[in-house]
Amino acid sequence: MVGKPVNKMYVIKRDGRQEQVHLDKITSRIQKLCYGLNMEFVDPLSITLKVINGLYPGVTTVELDTLAAETAATMTTDHPDYATLAARIDHHPDYATLAARIEVSNLHKETKKQFTDVIEALYHMVNEKTGLKTPMISDKHYKIIMENADRLNSCIIYDRDFSYNYFGFKTLERSYLLRINGKTVERPQHMLMRVAVGIHGEDIDAAIETYNYLSEKYFTHASPTLFSAATPRPQLSSCFLLMMPDDSIEGIFNCLSQCAYISKSAGGIGVNVHNIRAKGTYIAGTNGVSNGLVPMLRVFNNTARYVDQGGNKRPGAFAIYLEPWHADVLDFLNLKKNTGIEEARARDLFYALWIPDLFMRRVEANGVWSLMCPHQCPGLPDCWGEKFEKLYEKYESEKRYVTQIPAQQLWRAIIASQVETGTPYMLYKDACNRKSNQQNLGTIRSSNLCTEIVEYTSKDEIAVCNLASIAVNMFVKPDRKTYDFEGLKNVTKIVTRNLNKIIDVNYYPVPESKTSNMRHRPIGIGIQGLADAFILLRMPYDSEEARQLNLQIFETLYYGALEASCELAEIEGPYSTYEGCPVSKGILQYDMWNVTPTDLWDWSALKAKIAKHGVRNSLLLAPMPTASTAQILGNNEAFEPYTSNIYTRRVLSGEFQVVNHHLLRDLTDRGLWDDNMKNQIIANCGSIQNIPGIPDDIKSIYKTVWEISNKVIINQAADRGAFIDQSQSLNLHVEKPSYGVLTSMHFYGWKKGLKTGMYYLRTKPAAKPIQFTVDKSKLMVSNKDDAKVNGPITENGNYTNGDVHSDDEETKAKKLATLVCSRENPGNCDMCGA
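^ that's the sequence the OP posted. Answer follows.
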């Protein structure tokens, strides 16, 4: 039967011809892509039989491949029960690899092979709607590529496309590979070579080195770099930090205009509004009073909605920073809430507090807190530490405040907002300034969209940062017992040189951003796959061994980046504002934390070299969220633990469960994986801790973030923080948040010296047995059964259920819907995505 055509069924070939569908041809094509897989567990015929059920007369071969790939992907987690007579091994993790191979093979059939042929087509692209030539490649890079055609073409290894897993490849195809009139023309290897040449230009040796490390998945540049390298407008930067130039119509709308231009060019934005006068403040020019922050921020909210990042690629993303002494802070904390009048909400913005130590001490002592207007109490945003405290207390003694409230009343409002919306982010102003290598420039006034960039801004300078993340799991040695720190250092040096070059080749959407980047030359190196590295080395995330490896990985990153930056300074000179910075005085980041490094590297020799030559970059490390690029490379995000051991992926043909691939292989190797085990993990919400029959060593390695103490998470953040000269995107997860738990968590992080105390607060839904989703915004969804965690907090710290009292299903559904963040992916920052 297999050799016979399927009755009355035909397929349309790539050249337009019609041909009857033959089962053996489908099976043969799948069979060819099974090389290296465990054929004891993979059955191409079973995929073919499932594919046949989805066919219709006139299906194209492209659609046929897509259906086969999705079918293989759905077979990733199910495994047969060996005890049954059927004993047919239908499903296995190798199906995920096969699914990706089918999709990649399909793309290869649909695209040109030679890199230069693809570049030629992109350069001569004509828009089919306008008939105008709209090149996707810049003149400069087209010329370089064509002049080095033979060498570049010969260096590309297309088989590396087959190393992506199914979802990594689909992410690339959906958002990263360049298209001509809607049709994808790039292969992943083409994109990586384009990025490498886009960074290095005529330095072909460096471009080929970068290509090889990118294609072997040792590191990745950030999403904007992958999008735009070598294009006519190569806006390769991820993060932009702005301040309001003036508290005036001109200043506010100038800032708004800058935000629009940056958002148009796919930049994520952090803007501080500390200096905007509070509601009710007198305006001399009009003899009226100010409306305060809320109406202004609603304008910024609508600008973010209107000006998306790069033409409908993703919504605009603005984070608004405010110091907690501002008189409008209570209104500010309500802006993202799901209830309340629309005129007092701006739900599409993201909110952050820039917190001085004085406020934390007042909360701790149950003291009084004075709310002030920056117009009546000028200078507060411009100083930090002792100078800030003296000025603040001077204004208090002069009674220049708008009002006074108990500090803990404001603290309760902060906690209530975090429980309901996951924000505001918590950043500590004094730690950010005290431990900054840019403190010689002036007071740092805010961070960025994702809380890992801490850079100086002024009226004349918009801070910018270019990002890349290193896959630290790639440096676990084959024996799975030791770690290759030397290899990690060498890759870090390559990444440092790359990011330094991006500063010079970048397109800057506003001139103030170029001014800043050229003067201070900051870069941001992050990581992904730390949890994967721990698993490969059989280290529980909360073990002392993991804590030590985390520290030494970041010590190595900092050492390698400093060494590379010093070597660049030896050739090109230090950055222009180097003199007077802490590094110029021999003070490195760990010195500011009063930490002694391990004996892994010779810090004394490096300090001597820096004293002689300086460094080329003011800032180097900034571990960012890696939502998109970690998915592309198949790693867990950043330095985070796994949030679950099972989740759902959605594809056109439906949705299906995916299990942590490390766990799947471990359970399969021990003969423990079957349908029953999968269903038990689902029933346990992605946890394996209470499943009988799983050995304790496996349980300890595969704890989810919900099963790891936040003390462990914060301790590791502080350990690595001593080697991070910017900051880190630190999410905190609390299954059942309460006033006491969150207060304890925040104060612990503050006292440990963190710069970023919290990016997002993630809370766990308790209404469903499991939340099958990769959309992290839904981690904040809850209902009345979850200890009423999303209700308002009363003065005594207890939770109430707000205005929702009905228990009927419709009300529950509406309540659940309102709790989902109103943006598409607020937690998955593609900007820093790196």
